Amino acid sequence: MIFEVAAIDLGLHTEEGIRKNQAGRAEGMTANLTEEHHQTLVDAIWKARRELESYSLQLNIQSAIIFELVRTVIEHGTMYYSQRRPDELANFHWIIDAKGDNSIPTPWEKWWTMFIKPALQTKFAHDPIASLKIGDYSHMKRFVFDTVSEFHQKVLKPKPAGPRPMNLGLVLSESLRFSKDPEPGLELVDILTNATRRALRGNLQAEGWLEIPTIIVNRNPHNIHLLSLDDTVPETVKLPYGHIVKAFDIGAKSMLTAANQKDW
Questions:
Q1: Which of 9, 88, 152, 235 could join 81 via S-S bond, C-beta 3.0 to 4.6 A?
Q2: Sequence-separated (6 or more) residues with CB below 8 Å from residue 79
């Protein structure tokens, strides 16, 4: 089991800064559209942009965190299991804690589950996720484009000698569902998330969260990824919960197995 944490301190942000971030993300959705794109795609992306622009700042923040979290889960998960249980990479199953009724996604949930695929596909093209030469990725072959079409060549711009782009549409859509039921996996994530949040707020003693870092894969600079959506947030600032962030760096899982650490 791997637990990933992405968080944001809204106390460091301003409403103006978040609105600027939202406007920038919306503009970025349509910035690369050209006459070469099919009109149906152009219309769909413009529709998605207008929907993003209409959402509250809270939903904008949530979508930004989710996009970053999913990227990290894919990157860390594939590297981690490629060394230990590579057959786990044959399938990706996503279960989302539904906010709507009867497990039917809300309009916002429909928006991010649809747009996260092209958004991350483009991001992966410009900033590919890390991989390990010593890892076994053979079970992931079906999630890689066999051939890259002329259209994707222009959009993704894969390097001739580099790895073929990952088909994120398949990774993220083949098995994805929303659930309102008290499923064990969702219940466990809810417990861990609440414990981490309470720890950062100083409302939970160390005994309540001390073991959580043991199911987190060690990362730099810290295992708790604090996002910034505001250009005015200083790069370095003394945080009242800084000692908790540092404590979560202790006892985390190593990305490499003991055997691979010797060969690395």
A1: 88
A2: 130, 131, 132, 135, 255
- pTM for this model (two decimals): 0.89
Which of 108, 80, 123, 83 has the alpha carbon at shortest distance from 215? 80
Q: What is the pLDDT of residues 43-91, one digit of tens each?
A: 988 999 999 999 999 999 999 999 999 999 999 999 999 999 999 999 9
Neighbours of 176 (CB within 10 A): 14
Whether the bond between 184 and the residue before it is cis, its omega within 30 degrees of 0, is no
Q: Give the containing element (helix H, strand E) for 124.
A: helix 107-126
- Tokens 């996720």 correspond to 129
Residue 216 identity: I
3-state secondary structure of 224: strand
* CB 75, CB 129: distance < 8 Å: yes
Backbone region of residue 202 per phi and psi (left: phi > 0; alpha: psi in -120 to 50; beta: other values): left
